Amino acid sequence: MSVGGSVFFNEKLRAPEIAKFCEILNEFIREGYQFVVVVGGGRVARVYIAGAKALGANNFELDEVGIAVTRANALFFTYGIENAWKGVLTDPKEAERVLLLNKTPVFGGTTPGQTTDAVGASIAELLGADFINLSNVDGIYSADPAKESNAKMYKELSHVKMVSLLKAQASKPGGHSFVDAHAAAILDRSKIRSFFINGSDSENFKNLIRGMEFKGTIVQTISADSNVVDEEKE
Q: 170: domain range?
């Protein structure tokens, strides 16, 4: 699960919302569900990166600053999740070992040049698990919904369509990306079933985990006899 920094760490630290979300995870964990949580940086990371750039930091060093912020953000989840591994993990391969100990692994960024979405996708690939992306938008849209009022949200997409849509949107000036290209490539190559939802809607998140109808976008393999099609939600 990739928790975008925009959900809980944008204009300000939303500690009450983090606590509420962690309690939801705790409820599922008590029922036997397992999660790997990867936390992004949000606006705080962008502010720190801009400051470091003004001081002359190079791109590698800017990535290090961003990673440090994501790990600080991730610490909050280690406090709120009852069975969390104490401390933010830095090696994706540790996720499986921690899960076998019935603990919840929590990550921030891991390596310069790689986003937290890519970290989450890599771990999903390693574990053969689903990928959940929590952001401040409801799903994957045909265009940036913040800029284009007629943008349509896709209910279901194939991996091929997801990648082509990402390329088309990223190529536009000031382009909007619902996930970074590296993460999308990982999801595509291993055909990882992926869900994109708004992380601020806790009831919707519960519906997703319980296999009920939810608002968002699902990306999955489409076989010749499948009922799943690339469609826009009206």
A: 2-233
